[in-house]
Amino acid sequence: MTLATTTDIQQNGTFTFQPEVHKRNEASDEIDRALRKFEKHFNIEFTRYALYSKSFLNEFHHNLTMTDENVKVQIATEHNKNLLDHFTFFSKVANTENPSNEHRRQYYERLQAVYATLDRSPGQFSENEKVAFIAPEREGRILAEKMGWLPDGHSFHPNAKRVHFEGGILIGLDDINTTCQFDRVEIIDGAIASGATLITIMECMASASNVFDIYSVHATIEGINALTRFAKSRGLQLTCSIGHVTAGLNDKYYAVEVVSNGERLVVGDLGDTISDLQEVISHEILS
Questions:
Q1: Over the stretch 15-38, which tens digit does the pLDDT of each residue have?
Q2: What is the CATH number of domain 66-157+179-286?
Q3: pTM of whole model > 0.85?
Q4: Where are the beta strands (DSSP E) in 174-229?
Q5: Whole-angstrom Cα distance, residue 180 to residue 68?
Q6: Domain boundaries in the chain?
Q7: Would strands 160-165 and 48-52 be described as parallel, antiparallel, or unpaired?
Q8: Which of 51, 56, 49, 50 is nearest to 15 (CA)?
Q9: What is the pLDDT of residues 228-280, one digit of tens each?
Q10: End-to-end CA distance of the chain
Q11: Using CA atoms, how far apart are residues 158 and 171, in angstroms rounded to an integer?
Q12: Phi, psi of 194 (to 5 degrees)
């Protein structure tokens, strides 16, 4: 398997990157075992995978690249400081070992509140069948459904899981079954850490459109940088609408902030925090 490496980038002088997205049955024994653990845990079967080495991610995240006319990043907290209260709460819940259902409910509601403040909304394209909507499982799909951003007939919610593998990241994902051409692709996610999952999805959709809009409550600078460099390398038009951006990834590629006694999670695992909550809410509605 070959991937762009730090050496390749330095020798070529310019950065070009096209991730290799492989068929699931082409996985080595080591990769197969890593993917199988997640498939068993979530009762799913991946059809594709992509691998990002630790050395590659280090280069990809930290060699900063400025945006240009084809790549735009809009951050809500830059002009609405009141939103920072939500992120203080997200961090509190993320760093609580067993948050209560009430705290998780507030977490879920605050995620929606941040979405509502973004400069752009994918809802403006919901009636346009030439616009594809993608919301990866779990939190992307949960939040997109709640916000009404998964229109029938032109939306997809593939499984896309990030697996820590030999210091880097292994992405397992489903095929997005479409042969259509789209004017643009709207991707709804909850939080962007490394950017590897979204890059893999964008690579799978690059033959269907060259215009992408990404919406997320939170992102790291490292993840934004990776998305920017990928889009520029592949000649894609990209707009990222983000609630808040922070700097810092730990060795598991979770977003962290440095505090006096070490590090703390910024938003934590959104899927773990809100997915089971849906069952609680559904039960209460039916009761």
A1: 567 788 999 999 999 999 999 999
A2: 3.40.50.2020
A3: yes
A4: 184-188, 191-192, 211-220
A5: 28
A6: 66-157+179-286
A7: unpaired
A8: 56
A9: 989 988 999 999 999 999 999 999 999 999 887 889 999 999 988 998 766 55
A10: 53
A11: 12
A12: -80, -25
